[in-house]
Description:
20 helices, single chain
Amino acid sequence: MDGESQTPLLVLAEHNDADLERLLSDTETPFISRMTAASCIELNLLYKLAAPAVMVYLINNAMSMSTRIFSGQLGNMELAAASLGNQGIQLFAYGLMLGMGSAVETLCGQAFGAHKFDMLGVYLQRSSIVLLVTGIPVSMIYIFSKPILISIGQSTSMASAAAVFVYGLIPQIFAYAINFPIQKFLQAQSIVAPSAYISAGTLVVHLIISWMMVYKLGLGLFGASLSLSLSWWIIVVGQFVYILRSDRCKATWRGFNPKEAFDGVWEFVKLSSGSAVMLCLETWYFQILVLIAGLLDNPELSLDALSVCSSVNGLLFMVSVGFNAAASVRVGNEVGAGHPKAAAFSVVIVTSVSFVIAVVEAGIVLWGRHVISYAFTSGERVANAVSDLCPLLAVTIVLNGIQPVLSGVAVGCGWQGYVAYVNVGCYYVVGIPLGFLLGFHFNLGVKGIWSGIIAGTGMQTLILLYSTFRTDWNKEVEKSNKRLDKWDHANLLKK
């Protein structure tokens, strides 16, 4: 390639996503040069989104992990109870709220790409209303967590301790209801760094509050979980203050408007429900792993080992969730802006980067498999059990480098209903029954249960890969235009 043709490509690589679509459509430029320049543009856009998003999710997960660490320092029984309360009950609310909040992700991402900025604030208000109302029946599950856990086979002592932990998490439900819509509202505008700074500051406050409640005030498990709820509310308040004061949100947030917020709420509920089903089926899938492990012989050791592995997996999973958010924003913005080639290219780049990072993480976990558990508890038996589970943890981490990103693409395009059907088949028809068979019939214990879970995840990942890379992105642009017209409040008022 000559010097005259190189310069425009270098200049183009410094521009934005509109340039990406033009570059990918330029068939006169040599393929390698086109892909190199396009990769520079996409990686730059991806870095600005994914890096702070990963930081936000890592910090938020670190708060939850630190709560389990504080609980674990009280004893192995407390660690097992915190794990059961977190994985068995709290993840139910997390999956439901995050899933329903992803409706905002689809609509805000595509509306922002289509320059319908005023609709973002309307979607934020509608979603917050829907999620706050949903939080009321969810809180009943927390209140009656003890009999629920006993009814599914947990011991009375374990269920009682887990219920104490869960009671302190009730305020967190309603923090989720506001936080997730705010988070998606900001991410759709590529405003991610402020949330990272707010979360980082909150983590420091959280550690101080946790130390005071657990050790100084002697509130034990209840104090550990209550401090986590308070910390989530600090994040919510911080982000909302940013929206009110930031010039970057002036076009998208124009204050509360009850008429527009409640107009079309029922349609929003239906879209949110589809989103919730998709993500809940994924979140509950690993939640069921912990519940099943509680039915094994010596459940305390199984739950302790799983608590450590799930904490490590959860922390590293946040990296993939950050890429999930970046994929959703990039695909949603490009589809909404009418850029099919850029949307397809974004999928390839974000999936490749996330996969490479996941492989590196899995290698580090295998390298440190004998010492990981000592960050949570000093028990040698737990350390040996964790070391034995680490190969399965490594496989899970690698799969998590791909699957969440593809789910982010699905959210960006609004495919939640389709993915929900895939999840039902792979997770609940294949994964869980296979896990039961391996764990109980073949006496492989927790390793057998987890192996079945991995099989279901692997099948789901392959199906999503096949579906994503066979997508007609021109049709996705057409669907986005129809969806935005339907949801545009101006059109609704005309009707």
